[in-house]
Amino acid sequence: MPSFDKPTDQQEATRDARGADSRAATEAALFEAFGGVRGMVETTVPGLVFVAIYTVKRDIHIAAIAALGLSLLLGIARLVRKDTLKHAFSGVFGVAFGAVFAMMSGDAKNFYLPGMLYTLGLAVGYIVSALAGYPLMGLILGPVFKENLSWRTRNPGRKVAYTKASWAWGLILLAKSAILFPLYWWGDVTQLGWVKVALGIPPMLLSVYLTWIFLSKAPPPIDVFAEMEAAERAEREAEATAR
């Protein structure tokens, strides 16, 4: 006599397949949203070039122009490959802002200050948004998963996952800021530069990994775009029938 308490092999296989699909979709969405490993490298290498050249030459202008030139080349490479440009533009803008700030102030440490302030502001944004019930990670990834804000009212498990992910990002970025700002105030530019380069990719990878863990265990997203298309299709069919 079959047991109705335990799922059948077919049900378990279907559930496992759906879980694998959900994890794969989550991984793809995270890579799209955060630029993947390549995007992380592109945001880290210009800073490495700046500190390396400044350590040897002790010339702010040469180091800043070299870092900006490399950032532009990386952006052009994305353009040639017809890749998404949003990460390249943000990288070029950040490097350009830091380069101009460093050259105008005459202090090489200021090359890193705009990025540090952005990181600190982002950390605060993640934490405050999680406390307010509108976790920033959900606002970022909701459109990527085609669920928009449906996770807030219709999918509480997703909201919990986005809240946990936002806390993870906020605390990790806050810890990064707690290491970098004392070096900005009391260290020299080479110390700040090398530590910032070292903290470029690992915290990001940890944050993305934790986000993937939280979302892969959450319920699947509700595709609100598919729902709207289905509603429009049903409305057109109803109008056609009425005629």
TrEMBL record:
The chain crosses the membrane at residues 60-80, 87-104, 116-145, 166-187, 193-215. The keyword Lipid metabolism does not apply. This is DUF3159 domain-containing protein. Residues 1-21 are annotated as: Disordered. It comes from Streptomyces ehimensis. Keywords: Membrane, Transmembrane, Transmembrane helix. The keyword Signal does not apply. Coiled coil: none annotated. It comes from the Bacteria.
